[in-house]
Specification:
The structure is a homotrimer. Chain A is an alpha/beta fold. Chain A has 13 helices and 9 strands. Chain A folds into 2 domains: 144 residues, Rossmann fold, CATH 3.40.50.1370; 146 residues, Rossmann fold, CATH 3.40.50. Chain A has a 5-stranded parallel β-sheet with strand order 7-6-5-8-9. Chains in contact: A-B, A-C, B-C.
């Protein structure tokens, strides 16, 4: 897979996956987000950067929360946003996905934000869009969720500054998590000292060796000397599928409570992509406690999405100008 | 219950209920609405007052009409509006209401407009939101609907000017009506001369004494010398619940037709919060007749909502400035 | 039926049907669209022409594609747009259509864009709206779809310039097609040399004589010397209704493939209102081939809708000024 998310001059055109992106680009995204972050405290939380641009949220899989953050980010950049629930529209008239896409493109759309239950959907769409369109992956199957990973990196940088000094542990269902996959790639690219994954054998991928991570099945051992703990959401589907015994038993082994948190470094931060299952993967005392930065992640999600959207569309207009 | 809808300096921070608000504040809301009202006839029906502000419509109970008026009011104030149908979103993933709220807050939302089938929902939310967020109650269970009450007061003031001289009758299902409850509180606060409630015993509250209203079970008697008649919508659920015989019988006793209207003062106005059931609580001749101000109420609803939204967010930015 | 879509001075107030409109007005719409068309290639695809105007999309029949084009057109004119799914809202509370309309009008709405499954719905609504409201027909039953017809005329003019020299063939289910009806009226008004309809007897209207079109049941004969081929979408409902044998057989007789296309003029263009049924009414080779202008039609749809919306609201403000 060639890296088709960059323009010839190396700028972000699509944002599909962390895989293959270089450290300077990830740093640029975070630096850009830092600028937008200060905007949120101003009286007018808005810049005219994308005025007159058309952004379409194509959510094949429902996710009010993620759609809301992208819609807000777009509006704060002054773009026009359209929400299309594709599942229930044109495709129900028997039109093919590509026909639907080409139609939306023909309306002079500048960007598709794509959420899909199938891995590779955003990349497939990016391969087929017209040159003037950017595609942002808002989560595709078990594959990638790059804006989530970048808001997590941004949150870590805000608290811990220097990535090479850090030990980061990701806890839970690594196997099925697009979030974990993108996080591991981002942490590795940013040169994090040590990346650990903690979970039961049934929920860990087979390729942990190639991922460059250390594997722990025992949470107490895995959390020792950790600077950052990233808890993953437990999908109830997994338990129904027989991969897990019960949520009570899961919490006992892999849920984060105060006792387990005390094993990590005293100033460790606790993260979670949300929505959290209180009492399943995390106790309320920890989720609402002083080391939790879970709500900060949500806040940073807006700034990161504004950064990625504005960078992708800036590279577009540059390209278009050079064509003209 | 302390009055937590005001800032320390007595300005509107939330707008949850009429109860506990003083006459000068209700008058200030109407004066403010008067300014926005003239806007509707201008070529550009829009002011940049809330540019860059984020307002989220949280409708746990579906109400296209009310949501539309709040969305329109927000757009005419140049705010960014998001419509979240909460019933079908995050909470369906098992997230608690408060977690959903704190997430939306973390996106630097400035205001929640809340509609909920349970009494007290808006107040509960207001008690738990961050200091930078305002909450507007767009109707909660049988409890309150304060913007509806204020648009009714505004409509009365437009036509009748001096509240102390007036006799106002509210007709119908007072017991279950959040609209009636808020209206009675507003009318009393504004010093209306006489407030009457008219309806069958099964649909009148037990505490009419403490409400300071006069009770009539016979509509003909109750309408004598009345300046303002407020008809309530008859919820079909009530009839199914056995509290009422039939819509035909209800109309005979408590429906407003021309003959009954003639008992009131010759210049009495007829109001209804909508949507109307023609032939159930009101005849078409009266609803469409010269004394009806029902559509004016809708028009004034936009101005009142603009007034309340702008006042709540103005008090916020004042507070934030004093913190900074 | 008097032509109630024009103001006394002959300007477009509503846009309900092509029927009764004169050639200069159709030309004015296309000239206006030409101006907006160039906008799409600019950095900021937006003009402040309708800033502060309120446009409501009233879709009684679901159509994401058409609604999206109207919403985009309105946003690029800087209007405030509201999407109301009327089927599931106020009318479900037992309110009459006219009461719903009058309520929305009372909110100082400037324009209704109406889609309805019943013929005549848009005209009915136009007959009952207040003087300050314009109505645009976005498709009503089997009756009319005037913006679709105008974007088709615009597409033809872009490629073929002089209407009187042209021979245009419309192929498929003419009988049930609001698109075909509006197209035939527009082509006739613009003085197209020859209009042909091609289809099985069961799908052709009885009044083809009065329509001034030439009828062909054999596609090969009908396509000879044709400059423009307009394929219609085959509604699956027709086949279920027994009017047609099977989609395979239909494609054999009336589907457009390369062989049949070769019968038309060498520079003939192929059009389709979308969404296309590949392999039913058109082959993929033709739909994606060099003579297809199907995606251009989508692009022009935005410009045409901007033209019609801005013309209707310009005539309104003129009228209002003359009243004031």
């Amino acid at each position: 897979m060639t890296n088709n998310q960059l323009t010839d001059s190396g700028q972000l055109r699509h944002f599909l996956t962390i895989e293959g992106l270089k450290r300077p680009l990830l740093t640029e995204i975070m630096d850009r987000a830092e600028q937008f972050s200060s905007l949120s405290n101003r009286h007018v939380k808005k810049v005219p950067l994308l005025r007159g641009k058309t952004i379409m949220n194509l959510f094949f899989e429902n996710s009010t929360r993620t759609r809301t953050t992208f819609e807000l980010a777009a509006k704060r950049l002054s773009a026009d946003v359209m929400n299309l629930n594709i599942g229930t529209s044109a495709t129900s008239k028997g039109e093919s996905l590509l026909d639907t896409l080409h139609n939306l493109e023909a309306m002079h759309t500048d960007m598709f934000v794509v959420r899909h239950s199938q891995s590779g959907a955003a990349e497939f769409i990016a391969q087929h869009v017209a040159p003037h369109v950017s595609v942002i992956n808002a989560g595709d199957g078990c594959h990638a969720h790059p804006t989530q990973a970048m808001l997590d990196m941004f949150t870590i940088r805000r608290h811990k500054h220097h990535f090479p000094d850090l030990c980061v542990a990701i806890v839970g269902d690594i196997l099925h998590s697009r979030v974990a996959r993108s996080q591991i790639q981002a942490l590795a690219t940013l040169g994090v000292g040590e990346i650990r994954v903690i979970g039961p054998k049934t929920l860990l991928p087979a390729d942990t060796q190639t991922l460059g991570v250390h594997v722990y099945h025992d949470m107490e051992t895995g959390l020792q000397d950790v600077d950052v703990i990233i808890m993953l959401r437990l999908q109830n589907e997994r338990m129904e599928g027989g991969l897990l015994p019960s949520s009570r038993e899961y919490f006992h082994s892999y849920g984060l409570n105060k006792q387990k948190l005390s094993i990590a470094k005293a100033d460790a931060i606790v993260m979670h992509p949300g929505p959290i299952n209180r009492g399943v993967e995390i106790s309320s005392a920890v989720a609402d406690g002083p080391q939790s930065v879970i709500l900060e992640q949500v806040t940073h999600g807006i700034a990161i999405r504004m950064a990625v959207m504005s960078m992708a569309l800036a590279s577009q207009s540059e390209q278009n100008e050079s064509i003209i």
